[in-house]
Amino acid sequence: MLDTIALFVNCCRSSGLAIATAEVLDCMAQLKHIDLLDENQFKAVLQANFVKSYRLIPHFDKIYHLFFHQLKSELSTTTEQDPTIFSDMYSYLEKTSTDHLDASIVDFLFDDPNAYLQQMYKIQTLSEEQQQGVKSNMGALNMRLSMMLTINQVRARVAAFSGDNHSRQDVNQMIRVIDKRLDRANSMLREDMTFDNHVQVVRSKESYRKNLGAVPFSALSPDEILEMRDVVNRLVRKLKDVVGRRYAAMRKGKIDIKKTLRRADKYQGVPMQLVYRNRPPRKGKIVTLCDVSGSVWSAARFMLNLIYSLQEYFSQVKSFVFVAGLNEVTDIFDRYDINTAIESIMNDPDINYQDYTDYGETFRQFNKDHMACLNLKTTLIIVGDGRSNYLNPQAHILEEMRNHCCRVIWLNPEPEQFWSTGDSEMHTYRQHCHEVRPCINLNQLMSFIEHLVL
User: Fold this and answer.
1) Is 343 helix (H, G, I), strand (E, B) or coil?
2) Is residue 35 located within the same domain as residue 95?
3) Residues 335, 405: one domain?
4) Which of 84, 95, 101, 146 has the greatest CB tally within 10 Å of its CB?
5) Span 83-102, mean pLDDT?
6) 190 with 257, same domain?
């Protein structure tokens, strides 16, 4: 067993896995406490000791399957009747080998894949280095071609040995096994025997998530909506990090002479360390009005995510949702986490989500009860499609609201070509806004948040 494990470890090292001697000793000690005939236990012990990252598991599985299954002594059954056929063929191929590539393939055919895996790893490493340098992989391609030619040469010598020994017992069965292994060596050459295959899977998943951000909210499937939550959370965390670094850099104000001299006096002025007065970042005030009616239902959840994420970046955020009337939800966002807060809003019995959207009535109620929220440091963000079901748009109230705040931004979850069709009042409302943006997918939504915060 020790020899088998040692040979397997050499194969793993040859293909790029880093395995220390102490890890091999630990593995051997642990194998004494399991049933070696139970492959699940056996493989689990090897993997626990030799694999240091989940990214390496697919690579380990390939080597394990190759060593303990694909190269499992297929030749043993062919040598029972004529024991010398194995050694004679190996001696013949070894004597006729022309270089180290040839010898590595011959060893691979006779249960020692170590040298061949080293060649595979060299090809992969050379390909990566050249791609990082001059963006060319001609050197690696030449090595692959050389290996293929060598495999064909070995196949020809195997055929010659078969012709010279056609009268010997079981030679045909031996040739079939050798041909099968040559085919396996060829197929391995066309694949990448390193863990970079898994990196490509990770990258493709990441690119899938980026592509998911370009899908309109209305076209997302239930599974994609669940996955989108994770994407939103990661983007918000990333935004927090950027904002935190920026605020930390802005926090340095004027030099505090007294604190600087007092600190320098402890060390006789060597070294001199400057102390700055803290300057808290100037944060603005945000007021948001979000349409949660049926016409924008698919986008409403993500718009509420936007409103929730704004809380941490501004000194005060007042949040309202509306259909045919206005409901303040600031307290809900303050008390609950994002998912709980959104579920609470979307299931609020006081909001009739099936009612006809009335932007005019919403503006009228805001003007009556909440106009004091607006001042010259306030940014008013309105989220909705602007479809007021042919009711009075009350645009003059929006104009008055604009006069009471710093700027008005309207985010519309509809494509721009539909803004002036049917009952849409966007052509009226946009005259009283400083900025009007389409916001039909996550990419546009996060772009707006970054622009607003940074």
Assistant:
1) helix
2) yes
3) yes
4) 101
5) 76
6) no
Over pLDDT 70: what percentage of the chain? 80
For residue 240, name the pLDDT band (cuts at 50, 70, 90).
Answer: low
**Is there a domain that residue 11 lies in?**
yes
Q: Rg (Cα) of the chain, in Å, rounded?
A: 35
Query: CB within 8 A of 32, min separation 6: which ones?
Result: none
Diameter over CA atoms, the chain:
106
CATH number of the structural domain spanning residue 302: 3.40.50.410
CA nearest neighbour of 312 among 373, 247, 409 = 247
Residue 208 in any domain: the answer is no
Query: In this model, does residue 23 exceed pLDDT 80?
Result: yes
Q: Is residue 337 domain-shared with residue 395, that is, in the same domain?
A: yes
Q: Please count the CA atoms within 13 angstroms of the CA of 166 that sit on its side-chain side.
A: 4
Nearest CA among 79, 72, 29 for reference residue 49:
29
Residue bearing the bigger pLDDT, 133 or 453: 453
For residue 203, name the pLDDT band (cuts at 50, 70, 90): very low
Owner of token pair 């990258």: 203
Are the CB atoms for 179 and 201 separated by under 8 Å? no
Residue 248 resides in a domain: no
Across 98-121, average pLDDT = 79
> β-strands 252-255, 276-278: how paired?
antiparallel
Number of domains in the chain: 3
Domain membership of residue 273 as a residue range: 253-281
Report the C-alpha gap between 11 and 194 in whole angstroms.
Answer: 12
Whether residues 118 and 257 fall in one domain: no
Mean pLDDT comparison of 265-269, 295-299, 324-328, highest-scoring range: 324-328
pLDDT at 133: 46
Could you give the CA distance from residue 328 to residue 319 in angstroms, rounded to a whole number?
6
Does the pLDDT at position 201 exceed 60? no
Cα dihedral 127, 128, 132, 136 in deg (nearest 10): 20
Work out the angle at residue 405's Cα, subtended by the Cα atoms of residues 404 and 409, and round it to the nearest 5 degrees.
Answer: 130
pLDDT in tens, 154-180: 888 888 877 777 666 667 777 787 888
